[in-house]
Design brief:
By secondary structure, the protein is α/β, with parallel strands linked by helices. The strands form two sheets. It has an eight-stranded parallel beta barrel, surrounded by four helices. The radius of gyration is 19 Å and the shape is globular. The protein has one domain (2-323): Alpha-Beta Barrel (TIM Barrel). Helix content is 41%, strand content 13%. The chain contains twelve helices and ten strands. It has helices at residues 2-16, 40-49, 74-88, 102-106, 108-125, 147-162, 175-178, 205-208, 225-228, 237-257, 274-290, 316-323; strands at 18-21, 53-58, 93-98, 133-136, 170-172, 195-201, 261-266, 294-297, 307-308, 313-314.
C-alpha cells in the first residue's frame, strides 16, 4: 500500500508538468492593485502555449474575517472559483496557493486558528473537484514563522483539509521563503503520502532580482539592488555548476525522504539583460526536468512576465526557455 501511495503522489507531481504562476492578481491586497486582473484569455493563452498547470496565488487573509468564524468573503470565493473553473474546463491543473498571508508569518500562534478555518472552508468548497485541483497551504513561510512554528502548524492545517479531502495532493514547502537550504528543517507527517514538497529558486539573487523595486528598504543582506543592474548570466561552467548543485540538493532530499519535488517559483526580473534571462531560465528549466521536478515559472504577465499584456504578445524566447522548446537556440551546456 505504501508503494502504491508513493506512486500516486509521484504521478500527481509529474502531472503538474510545466506550469506558470498567475501572480500579482488574486494575491494583491485587491485584484488590480498590482496591475493584473485575470482574464479568460490568459487561460486560453497558457493552454495553447503548452503549459500544463496554473499556480494561482491567493491572498485569503485579506478576504476573510479577522474574528471567529473567519468567514471568507463570498464574492472573493466566487472569483477564485471562476479561476479554478477556467483552468479545469481547459484541462489544466490548478494549484490554489495561500499567498502573501503576512499575518501568519508575523504571528504564527495567534493566526493559526484562523488559517485552519480558512483552509477548512477552501477544502470544503473543492471537496468534489477532480485531482487536477491541488492545494498549497502557505507560500514562503518566513519571519516569526520559523521551522519550529511551521512544523507545529503543518499537522493542524493538514487536518483541516483532510476532514473533507483525504487524498487530495497538498503542496508544502520549507521555511526561509521555501529555500532549498531549509529542506532539512522540514518535518512532514510520515503517514500522509499525498504530499508534494515545493522549493523556490532565485539564485544568484543579485542577478534575478536586479532592479526589483520592492527590495529598497529591505534587510541589509539584500540591499544594494541598484548596484546589481547590468549583472549578466552567461552560462559559464561555474555559473551552471552553481545552479546544478542547489537543484540537486533538493532532488537528493526528495529521493531520501520519498517526497516528490515541485519547483513552484523561478524567474529573473525584467530589468535584467533579456538574453541572460533566457539563458538562466532555460538552464534552470532543463535541470529541473532532468531531476524530474515539476515546475511553475514566476510569472505570467507582470515584472517577470512571459507575456506582455500591453502589447498582447508572448516574449517568445523566454516562453520557449520555460517550456523547453527554444527553437534555434544553442544548447545551454
Amino acid at each position: 500500500m505504501g508503494t502504491a501511495l508513493a506512486d500516486d503522489i509521484q504521478k500527481a507531481n509529474a502531472r503538474l508538468g510545466v506550469g506558470v504562476n498567475f501572480g500579482n492578481a488574486l494575491d494583491a491586497p485587491r485584484e488590480g492593485e498590482w496591475g493584473v486582473v485575470l482574464e479568460e484569455e490568459f487561460f486560453d493563452l497558457a493552454k495553447e502555449a503548452g503549459f500544463e498547470s496554473i499556480r494561482l496565488p491567493v491572498r485569503w487573509t485579506t478576504h476573510a474575517q479577522a474574528e471567529v468564524p473567519y468567514t471568507i468573503d463570498p464574492d472573493f470565493f466566487e472569483r477564485v472559483g471562476w479561476a479554478v473553473d477556467q483552468a479545469t474546463r481547459r484541462g489544466l491543473n490548478i494549484i490554489i496557493d495561500g499567498h502573501h498571508q503576512t499575518e501568519f508569518n508575523e504571528n504564527p500562534e495567534g493566526q493559526l486558528d484562523r488559517m485552519e478555518a480558512i483552509w477548512r472552508q477552501v477544502a470544503g468548497r473543492y471537496r468534489d473537484c477532480g485531482q487536477n485541483v491541488y492545494f498549497e497551504l502557505h507560500n514562503e513561510p518566513h519571519g516569526r514563522l520559523d521551522s519550529v512554528a511551521w512544523n507545529a502548524a503543518i499537522p493542524k492545517l493538514l487536518a483541516a483539509v483532510r476532514e473533507t479531502n483525504p487524498d487530495r495532493p497538498i503542496i508544502i514547502g520549507p521555511v526561509d521563503y521555501n529555500g532549498i537550504s531549509a529542506l532539512e528543517t522540514l518535518e512532514l507527517p510520515a503517514g500522509d503520502r499525498h504530499l508534494i514538497v515545493t522549493v523556490h529558486f532565485y539564485d544568484p539573487f543579485h542577478f534575478t532580482h536586479q532592479g526589483a523595486e520592492w527590495i529598497e528598504g529591505s534587510p541589509e543582506w539584500i540591499e544594494g539592488s541598484p548596484e546589481w543592474i547590468g549583472k549578466e548570466w552567461e552560462g559559464t561552467d561555474e555559473e551552471r555548476a552553481f545552479i546544478t548543485a542547489r537543484l540537486e540538493r533538493a532532488a537528493d532530499w526528495g529521493r531520501a525522504k520519498g517526497r516528490p519535488i515541485f519547483l513552484g517559483e523561478f524567474g529573473a526580473y525584467s530589468k535584467a539583460d533579456e538574453a541572460s534571462r533566457v539563458r538562466w531560465t532555460r538552464y534552470v528549466a532543463e535541470e529541473a526536468a532532468r531531476l524530474k521536478m515539476s515546475t511553475a515559472y514566476w510569472e505570467f504577465c507582470a515584472g517577470y512576465g512571459l507575456y506582455d499584456a500591453e502589447k498582447e504578445t508572448w516574449r517568445d524566447d523566454l516562453k520557449a526557455a520555460v517550456l523547453g522548446n527554444a527553437k534555434g537556440s544553442p544548447p545551454s551546456k
